[in-house]
Amino acid sequence: MTIREQAEQREYQYLSRYASHSADSKGRQREEAQDEIRTIYQRDRDRILHSKSFRRLKHKTQVFIAPIGDHYRTRLTHTLEVSQLSRTVARALYLNDDLTEAIALGHDLGHTPFGHAGERALNEVCPLGFRHYEQSIRVVEKYERDGQGLNLTAEVKDGILNHQWNLHPSTPEGQIVRFCDKIAYINHDVDDAERAGIMKEEDIPVRFRKSLGGSTKERLNTLINDIIYNSIDSEEIRMSDDIMGEMVDLRTFLYENLYTNSIAKEEERKVPGLLQILYEYYEKHIEEMPVEYVKLIERGEMEQRVVCDYISGMTDPYAVQKFEQLFVPKSWPNE
C-alpha cells in the first residue's frame, strides 16, 4: 500500500461522514496516474501554489490601489488569509482541509488588476461580460502550463467557480471557503482602512462592536466560532441567523463608508479608462498579445474573450507599464 493510499484510508477513519474523501473524488477531466505520496487534493493545492497566476496575485489590488507601505493587503495576502481561516473551520469540523485549502488558494486566480474596479471595467467594455470567478476557471484550464491547464479535480473547480455569495458550492469544503472569503475581507479591509487613517474602530457602529467584537481579532473569533458551532455534524455549512445578519449589515456599512469612500477610492476613477483603452487597443491589434493568447484565437476562441483573458491576467504595475508604453510619449533622447 502506497503512502497516498494509507492517507486515503486515514481520511475514512478520521474525517466526518460529510467530508469529501480524496478516494471518492469525481476526478480530473484528463485521467492521470495517481501520485504515490500525495492525495488528489494535495496535488491540486500544490499545482495552484506553484502556478504563475498565483504568484501574480501579489501585485494585484485588494482595496487600496498602489498603497505606499508594506502592510496593506494585496490579492495574494487576502487569498492566504482566506486559506488560513478556511482550514481552521475545516479541521474543527473534521472536513477535508486539503480540498478546502486548494479551493481557497485558487478562488481569486482570475481576478483583474485594480481589484473590483478592474472587474467592473472589463465587464462594461467586453460584450461577453466578465466575472472573476468564471475567469479563474479559464485560467486554470486554458493558460497554466503553457496552455495545458492544471487539470484540477471537479471538486476544486466547483469550489472556485461557486465561491461568490449568491452561488452554492456542492461540497461542504467549498461552502467553508465561500463564508471565509467574506469574513476575511470584511475584517482585513477594516484593518487596512484604520492603517490608512480613513476609519477608526470607534467609527464602526456600537451595534456591531457589541455583537461581533471591538477589534479585528474579536470579530474573527466571533464569526469563525459561529460557523463551527452551527455546522457541527451537518452537511451544510451555516451561521446563526443573528450573527449572519450582523455580518451582512456590517458589510453594507463598509460599502457605504469604505468601499465607496472618496479618499480610499480616489485613484479608482482612472481604472476604467486605462483598462478600456487597453482592451480596445488589443482588440484591434491581436497579433501584439503574447503568443499563447493568439494561439487560442487561432483554435477558435472568441477574440473579445481572449483579450479579456490577457488584460485580466495583468498585474497592476504591468497594466500601467503597457499603457505608458503604448500611449504615453517618451522623451526624445539627448545624444
Explain the layout of strands and helices.
Layout: H1 3-14, H2 40-49, H3 52-56, H4 75-92, H5 97-106, H6 115-125, H7 132-143, H8 154-161, H9 172-195, H10 206-211, H11 216-231, H12 241-259, H13 271-284, H14 291-298, H15 303-312, H16 316-327
Provide a compact summary of the structure.
With 335 residues, this protein is mainly alpha-helical. It is built from 16 helices and no strands.
Describe this structure in words.
With 335 residues, the protein is mainly alpha-helical. The protein is built from 16 helices and no strands. Helix 5 packs across helix 8. The longest helix has 24 residues. The chain is flat and about 70 Å long.
Listing every helix as H and every strand as E from the N terminus to the C terminus, the arrangement reads: HHHHHHHHHHHHHHHH
Biggest β-sheet strands, sense, barrel: none
What portion of residues is helical? 55-70%
List unreliable stretches of 5+ residues: none
Question: Rough shape?
Answer: flat
Number of strands: 0
Mean pLDDT: 93
Helix-and-strand structural type: mainly alpha
What is the count of helical runs?
16
Tell me the fraction of residues in β-strands, as a range. under 5%
- The N- to C-terminal Cα distance equals 72 Å
